[in-house]
Amino acid sequence: MSNLFSGFKSSLYKNYGENPGKMLVHTGVLGWILSSLAQVSAVVFNDKISPEQKSFLIPQEIADAGINIASFYLITSSFKNIASKLVSTGKLTTKGIKNALSKDDVKKIGKLDFNIGNLNNVPDSYKPFKNGVDVVASTIGSIISCNIVTPILRNQYASKKQKQALANMHNNYELAAPRGISMSQYQKLSSIKYSSSSSLKV
Amino acid sequence: MASNMKIKTSSPQFQGGIKSACNSVKQRALSAVPNLELSGNINWINKAGEKISSAEQRLILGASALMTQPFIDANNKKVDEKTRKVSVARTIAKIVAGTATGFIIRKACIKGIKAMSQPRGANVPKWKSLFTPKNITKTNTDAFMQYRNAMGTIVALVVMMFTNFLIDAPLTKFLTNTLIKKQENK
Fold it and tell me: Which range of residues forms the domain containing residue A182?
């Protein structure tokens, strides 16, 4: 047990110590899963919300959870990965970092396989800059995913679900066409019924 | 024929071809991005990496959520007006409750982990180094500070498994009902 905990601490240090942006993405996903579970139950057990509104809010919460987790991971990690690649290949850099690179390395800037972090003499200012860009990018990504993409998508989904739920609740089925009677029989029956009315046209 | 195709797609040559095609696309995309060399005061970027932990990120997310989400819900014309109002009230309540508890618990856990991840030594009580990884002698490195943030956040997530039900959900319910009442009294 002690070894397991020790291994957990070491792996956390190794994985996230050098990569705060990755930590923000992973813990963010876990956080959304846990808070979504609580929020769904909060609507389910709130007596003051009417069944009609619950029919909207429960799917809204479920959609919110699913879309939030998916979009948070996809958008936030994409933002982080793109920003990370731009910094590691030198596309996005600072004067200090560029000046610290050798002439040969400067020529490699923008090449996909070039990684400043793997050089023998990594400039001192590189890591803090890369971590900063990672964190800023994942924060921007999470704002876009959680506060713009998710609410728009979840409302679309939830309003569709509400319409279905309300239709079921009020037995609001569409009127089915009469069956078991042919058009000629129908015309015959109606002519008998409305025989006094000459204005009836079937 | 189909099995032949399968063998071909899993062959190293095929896999290599796919990989090189992907890399070529990635390289083109990367080349399309202009080189950007930042000058002047870029200290704020370095500080962001140092100071923004999951707690601060939660606070930033909550503040920006208050500026966008109620507005999006209020303009959702696909639901009736009453539902729209409840939806706005619930969104505001959820953001306020989630941000407040999320920020406080994350911050407290990160602080707690900081206190319990001191370097091991003769005069340091065992509980003060409970969360210190092996072979750590310096605690002022950037990597170690990020480790403390990560460990604090993970502990906070465990704590929030309970507080989400015990604090978040009832607080959201209370705030939603208060906001709905206010709307009805208008």
Answer: 2-193
Residue A46 lies in a domain: yes
Show residues of chain A in contact with B131, CB under 8 Å: 9
Residue B126's contacts (CB-CB under 8 Å, 6 or more residues apart) are: none
Decide if A144 is inside a domain: yes
Half-sphere exposure of A128 (CA within 13 A, CB side): 18
pLDDT digit of tens for each residue in chain B (186 aa)? 455 555 567 777 777 888 888 889 999 999 999 999 988 888 899 899 888 888 999 999 999 999 999 999 999 888 888 889 999 999 999 999 999 999 999 999 999 999 999 988 878 888 888 999 887 877 788 888 889 999 999 999 999 988 988 998 889 999 999 999 998 887
Residues of A in contact with B46 (CB under 8 A): 125, 128-129, 131-132
Asked whether residue A198 is domain-assigned, the answer is no
The interface pTM score, or ipTM, of the predicted complex is 0.80
Q: Report whether B120 contacts B132 (CB < 8 A).
A: yes
Name the domain count of chain A.
1
